[in-house]
Amino acid sequence: MGSFSRALPSGFTGTAESYTSVSGSRGTSNVGSSAAKREVDEAMVTFEPYQTPILTELLSNKFRRKPAGNQTFEWITSSLLPRTDTVTFVGGAANEDNITVGDSTLYQVGTKIVNDVTGQVVIVDSIASSQIDITKIGAGNITAASALTMHLIGDSFEQGSSSATAKSVNKVFPYNYVEIFKKSVHETESQQATAEYGPDDWNRNKMDRMAEFKMDLEDHFLFGIRDSNTGFQNGTFTQYHTGGCLDSTANFISAYYTYTTLTEALFFDTFLAGLFSKGTNRKRLYCGATLKSTLSNFSKVKQQTKVEEKTYGVNIRLIECDFGMLELAWHPMLDGATYTNYGIALDLGRDYVKYRYLANGGKSRDLGFRDYTNPLYAEQDSRKGEWLGEIGWELQGSEYHGIIKK
Q1: Sign of the C-alpha dihedral computed for residues 189, 365, 54 and 261 taken in this order
Q2: Distance from C-alpha of 55 to C-alpha of 367, rounded to nearest angstrom
Q3: Residues in CB range of 221: below 8 A, 6 or more apart
Q4: Taking 50 as the threshold, does the pLDDT of residue 263 lie above it?
Q5: CA–CA gap between residue 170 and residue 342 (Å, rounded)
Q6: 333 to each of 49, 215, 256, 342, 346, how far by Cα in Å?
Q7: HSE on the CB side for 66, CA within 13 Å?
Q8: β-strands 402-405, 256-258: how paired?
Q9: Which of 135, 307, 373, 390 is 20 to 30 A removed from 168 (C-alpha atoms)?
Q10: Distance CA 52, CA 219 (A)
Q11: What distance separates the 2 farthest-apart alpha carbons in the chain?
């Protein structure tokens, strides 16, 4: 046994209650100096959903829950062909041979390119391997350009021409793992037979562990690293680890925006413009406290905020920007010197974000409590149970979401 004092919120002073830490089975020593019930009005311990806003959101929506039939689960993503490319023109004539392009596979005879600077349009008239020849549409000569981003504006065909060349982006199969999470409750029969004030210790302990269990899951959704290994815990079975939003190796969210000093113009004109360029036009930004306070002081946020609402216990500020609707929410687990400046933007439309749990053949490893009746525990004159789940996260469309950080 040891003792610990509960940590105070950052920036606060005072003296918190001191607790005795319990390792293993809880006994009557947890009761205190007096076993008599005191006259206090204490509500049953409940878990506050705002502490784990993302998990609560996913658990509360049946369309965002999906079983996984294997420890490794995949999903399919596909993308539209790019609409821009980097192109170099020598210029000086109405046509040009062997122009330099970024990706020759995007082109076929008839593909049109518009010069973003001059507005000139050229058309591909022949292709030999990666050598692309073009002719300017309209009078005049092609203006020189060096490694300029230009827009592909579609393909044009003459009468009686053959069918277009088929071009598409190959599908990819991102994947993640379900991970085994556990949080146990273990008490002696003597403890259960001892009178205490408030709710009985078994149920209170069970509720406290549930709160911690859900926080564990939320933390893994934010900070988890996708991995599989054997022997970390001296076992012979493969152990799976589920990856989360900030797992840059798994790249579930590919768009990062880093700032030194965040201004209103940078947030609205750069970060949000990029965030809403893919996916749906309604997204939710979960912020650390410092970032949330910074955004709340922006004049556009103050002026454009719609009626404040609550979603599963989470305060939401709805901001109508030029590119879509942004739901602004504080996330209490984005704290500390680093993560207080972070924001994680999720596109929750079309069920791009899902909670996955292992299940097959009538057997489910979804979040639940197991009250063990194994005779071993009865023989030990105690009762044991645990919260258990084999759970993982699915984030479809890496470019639909975004991360802003300092």
Answers
A1: positive
A2: 11
A3: 54, 55, 244, 245, 393
A4: yes
A5: 33
A6: 13, 9, 19, 11, 16
A7: 14
A8: parallel
A9: 135
A10: 9
A11: 98
Q: Which residues pair with 404 in a beta bridge?
A: 257, 343
Asked if residue 90 has pLDDT above 90, the reply is yes
Neighbours of 351 (CB within 10 A): 14
Report DSSP state, residue 270: I
- In this structure, which amino acid lies at residue 129? S
Q: Give tens-digit pLDDT for 95-118.
A: 999 999 999 889 999 999 999 999
8 burial type by CB count under 10 A (0-12 exposed, 13-18 middle, 19+ buried) = exposed
Return the closest-CA partner of residue 399 out of 174, 150, 101: 174
Angle at 230 between CA 228 and CA 231, to 5 degrees: 140
User: Which one, of 291, 298, 280, lies nearest residue 329 by Cα?
Assistant: 291
Beta strands 175-177 and 227-230: pairing type?
unpaired
Cross-strand pairs, 392: 356
Residue for token digits 């579930």?
A: 252
The one-letter amino acid at 66: K
Report the C-alpha gap between 31 and 186 in whole angstroms. 15
CA distance 48 to 44: 12
What does each C-alpha distance from 248 to 244, 251, 275, 326 come to in angstroms? Answer: 9, 5, 17, 24
